[in-house]
Amino acid sequence: MTLIKSISGIRGTIGGPTGDTLNPLDIVKFTTAYATFISRSLPNPSKGEASESAGTPLPRRGRGRLVVGRDGRISGPMVRDVVCGTLVGMGYEVIDIGLATTPTTELAVRWHEADGGIIITASHNPTQWNALKLLNSEGEFLTADDGAEVLRIAEAEDFDYAPVEKLGRVVKDDTMNQRHVQSVLDLRLADVEAIKARKFRVCADTINSVGGIILPQLFEALGVDYEILNGDCTGQFAHNPEPLEKNLQGIMDKMKNGGFDLGIVVDPDVDRLAFICEDGRMFGEEYTLVSVADYVLSQMSHEKLEMINDNEKSSNEAAQPISSFNHSNSSFLIPHSSFNTVSNLSSTRALRDVTEKYGGRYTAAAVGEVNVTTKMKEVGAVIGGEGNGGVIYPESHYGRDALVGIALFLSSLAQKGCTVSELRKTFPDYQIAKNRIDLTPETDVDAILVKVKDMFAKDPEAVVNDIDGVKIDFPTKWVHLRKSNTEPIIRVYSEAQTMDEADELGKRLMQVVYDMQ
Q: For residues 128 and 151, what is the distance between their CA atoms, to the nearest angstrom?
């Protein structure tokens, strides 16, 4: 079975029998369930009448308003037509923003003051896959409880459609890419002038999806000279679309030939981001978030120090006791709530190290964007994300956004005046091994996780965390086993100070799984 139903939506391969793949009948069913859930959560579906002029929300009709955007997959037009037709049948006004990144669609929900949105994308999965990702009125993924309710409604087929006089409509809006780019330029820490002055030349692989549409717009706005590889938005992915080193030999070879300051790789929906050094070596997808977080925290530290110095000049009595700070270096202590960061359990320890360097507090969340953003709000994090190249910067929005990551990374490079490889050397160096185990119908994942947990329960050097699968933390390394929410696999991530050590730890746990299959 390739149809995967989860709290974040549905995902599957196109074609085949109903109930087993992503096909028109199942798309209608789950779109209807989502629309039903949204309609039941609306206090007043007709609220928010507004002018239809450019830049303002359209007047509402029917039950509410939902935004729909899609990546460049071959099946995208078919899935969009089914989704939009279903929503019209449910009485919704549909804002179709066309070919758009996941973060663009998330932002469009807020800008249109919509009640939710559907992103048609299977992220890093191969071309035969597609999916529906479901958003709330904040342009964020549904919570676990809300996602479970959508699944319940779908299973019960507990819904009804609009009568003819209350059918919805589809409204096209092709302005969201431009607005997304402008919102990135307007970020307080996006140093556009410094980027322009540095005259960067970059090479970007956009995998023949929507990155090939929006990244050139961003580069031109930043004054960056660029060359795009796989820039036609055809959905014919030139290689495996997951931005991992083993899939990126083309752009890595291009970088080795010289002439570029930075290599940039995005996935099909542009919420994941990987960098390549000027010499063709991988920067490391785990270090995308680390590097951007370091820049954000360093800028905040600088601003805090300037504020203290200004207060000292204007008054003998500073805003906070000077003894609370160490002026001898940039890592002076500040209130933790100002400098908190969050990533998921499968992400590198380097973010923790960088956060603590600036006196902040790092917190780990369960894997999944909604879990990370929920934890970020809980602890007041100024930046967070995931080790797969996902940067979440709340000043923009609570969603992974490669455009935001690119702008902040280039700002850091421009201000430091260094090369990408020189920047990489400034961070703690950990090696992470990412393995997977394909599941069979007979695999008892829960039993496997219990056995792994029991193996280390009495180890005095091991700290066991079971909020999401099982993670075993040792003083200088860790390993994390969890069932994927999007694929029929167990992910086994392990990190240590050398790749050999990380790989050995991961494969030790993988053998436990093989022995139980």
A: 23
Cα separation of 503 and 492, whole Å?
10
Q: How many CB atoms lie within 10 A of CB 39?
A: 18
User: Which entry of 8, 123, 183, 494 is annotated as an active-site residue?
Assistant: 123
- Do residues 107 and 114 lie in contact, with contact meaning Cβ atoms separated by under 8 Å? no
297 token code pair: 């925290």
187 secondary structure, DSSP code: S
Q: Residue 453 to residues 364, 380, 458, 478, 485: CA-CA distances in angstroms? A: 19, 31, 10, 13, 20
Residue tagged 């009495």 (tokens)? 458
- Tell me the two tokens of residue 398: 């609570």
CA 205/CA 220 separation, integer angstroms: 16
The one-character DSSP state at 50 is -
First to last CA, the chain: 19
Nearest to 462 by CA among 470, 191, 312, 512: 470
Tokens of 133: 């990702």
Backbone angles phi, psi at 437, to 5 degrees: -125, 120
Other CB atoms within a 10 A radius of the CB of residue 359 amount to 20
**Rounded distance between C-alpha atoms, residue 229 and residue 207, angstroms:** 8
**Is 123 noted as a catalytic residue in this protein?**
yes
Which ranges in 275-385 belong to alpha helices (H)? 286-314, 350-357, 369-379
Q: Can you list the positions of beta strands (E) in 34-137?
A: 64-70, 92-99, 116-120, 129-135
Confidence check: pLDDT of 62 > 80:
no
Q: Compute φ and ψ for 391, nearest 5 degrees.
A: -110, 125
Give me 246's structure tokens.
């083993």
Please report, as a single letter, which amino acid is at residue 255: M
423 Rama class: left (phi>0) / alpha (psi -120 to 50) / beta: alpha
SS3 42: coil
* 8 A C-beta contact, residue 345 and residue 493: no
Go through the chain and tell me how many residues it has: 517
Dump strand ranges (E) for 210-365.
225-229, 262-266, 273-276, 341-344, 362-365
Summarised one tens digit per residue, pLDDT across range 75-96 is 999 999 999 999 999 999 999 9
Three-state SS at 169 = strand
pLDDT in tens, 353-396: 999 999 999 999 999 899 999 999 999 999 999 999 999 999 99
Q: What is the pLDDT of residue 321?
A: 40
d(CA 278, CA 269): 25
Tokens 């009709």 locate to 61
